[in-house]
Amino acid sequence: MVEIDLNAIRQGDRLALTRALTAVENDDPGSRSILKTLFPYAGKAHLVGVTGGTGTGKSTLVNQIAKSLRHNINDEKKPKIAIIAVDPTSPFTGGALLGDRIRMQDLAGDRGIFIRSMASREAIGGLAHKTAAFATILDGAGFDLILIETIGAGQAEVDIARLAHTVIVVEAPGLGDDIQAIKAGILEIADILVVNKADQPGAENTARALQVMLSMAQGDSGFQTAGKHMRKANPVTSKARQDEKPTWEPPVLLTIATEAKGIDELVTKIHRHHTYLKASGFWQAKEADRLQKDLEVLLQDALWHDWQKNLDQKVYENILADVLHRKCTPLDAVEALLKRS
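Structure (tokenized):
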């Protein structure tokens, strides 16, 4: 087991932090102690998720957001920023290029920015299995804002909405993502919508289409689009906000990340959404929803491992053979396995 100085992490030791993240990612002995020690210090950082389709320029956008947050603020108020960049894992080799970090090399000289790439390791939902744990560690380590870039989002990759306080959905003209956004539920998780690569033809049309879709969604739902996924999923936390007066209408912004155009306005909207979350009580509700989800996932994993320990492998193989030979359905097999475990 690698010895990790948790006090050093709190004091900003980057090597100790890197070792802690690696230990947690690999489920090394002592990783639970790391999370247990840092958990009480967490809950203060602003978690900002950046998601969207492949090729929309998410990594470049994240790079520019971090630079703007650090360079356009006086030294006394500069926030400490951490970036978690999730890269897709090859289903054949299990490897990952971790190319997002390569695109952020110009941030390497800033000691107030910490970048960590992680492979998705076949996890679905746009994040890796340990992304939430990484966010907890970085939060507990004292970072003020944590940018989380997902892999290219598709129709089901909306887990970032459960983790982040503010979700930025990035679109780009010419990729055919307008209808995809409706199909995926991507529109419903957006707190801020960004049409990147706005110098390309069709950018204005894409922005208008997204604005129309937002108006339609708000008209149908009866409340602001932001947080819609949480209100459906968690009636306990949604009830507390039924009479909430402040509302948030997701803005649609145009950016050219490669030229840093539109980035300052985007950063302003991020700050305004943070203020809205605090003023409305939605911040606490999102924290409660996230922790509940983390607890459910951990409970499912624990129950699965306990069930496997008590399982008679021969019984499992026989029931699996019955399924393969069409003697019973998978549902029947599950019922039989649960009765015999």
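DSSP finds 16 helices and seven strands in the chain. The CA atoms of residues 287 and 340 lie 39 Å apart.
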